């Protein structure tokens, strides 16, 4: 019984985070209604306030736990193999992401990009958390390119940090363009072209 009681708050919190993520992705943070989040999660307002004092703190947790973790897994897990060629690994990640989206999956855009555009100018807590996610992503790409330089597969004159920032910006920009155009093919084309650009960095 005690174990069940222990799991219940964790399950409630998880449902709140997932429901909030879905509402934010569908409507944006500012337009998302707490009542809609509660209905989607199937929990009471009191249960929400037990975990999160307000919608903003819930939003912060969504960035840190629901957006950051799976995004970094999607872009970084494929880079962990130290035996893989760094450029090949980066290209594989981009091509895999290009193939990830169903025909109707692009219209809501990238959750990270959406919140960055909407909330970074308005709320410092959001800005800092979103920046930390972008920085962690950039750090992973930088480390991969620097490893390539150490083993001689990436040109020494390449500014690894600058290229990593460019890659992240190009990926996020591609999601924004594809969202506006409602075109998965545009996203795939951009990411495939970006993967081809990486060949120019080879030593």
What report would you give on this structure?
The chain has 203 residues and is an all-alpha fold. It has two domains: 1-53, Arc Repressor Mutant, subunit A (Orthogonal Bundle); 63-201, Tetracycline Repressor, domain 2 (Orthogonal Bundle), CATH 1.10.357. The protein is built from nine helices and no strands. It has helices spanning 2-27, 34-41, 45-51, 55-76, 86-98, 111-119, 124-151, 160-181, 184-197. It is elongated, with a radius of gyration of 19 Å. The N and C termini lie far apart (61 Å).
**Secondary structure tally: strands:** 0
**What is the number of helical segments per DSSP (H or I, 4+ residues)?**
9
Number of domains: 2
Poorly predicted runs are 1-6
Helix content: over 70%
Looking at CATH, the homologous superfamily of the largest domain is Tetracycline Repressor, domain 2
Question: How is this fold's topology laid out?
Answer:
Layout: H1 2-27, H2 34-41, H3 45-51, H4 55-76, H5 86-98, H6 111-119, H7 124-151, H8 160-181, H9 184-197
Helix pairs in contact: 1-2, 1-4, 4-7, 5-9, 6-7, 7-8, 8-9
